[in-house]
Amino acid sequence: MILIDPPTWPAHGRLWSHLVSDASFAELHAFADRIGLPPRGFERDHYDVPANLYDTAVAAGALPVGSRELVHRLADAGLRRPKRPRRPQG
Q: Where are the domains of the chain?
């Protein structure tokens, strides 16, 4: 299933949502392509979705969920790819 959280994440002068699949990356990429998200919007385990495309994603079948539920469902599916901690410089 495709999931999307509310557009509450600020970056680059906009608000953003996260789009994930709790089934597979293939499902996620196919859905993103269908709603016109560019491949560069994919980051490790999710697509960043600008607020103006939130309603488009929901209309296309993405299930609106809270951010915590989105992360839990992604982790439970074994698809979570967290950022690696940066090594200290010096």
A: 2-76
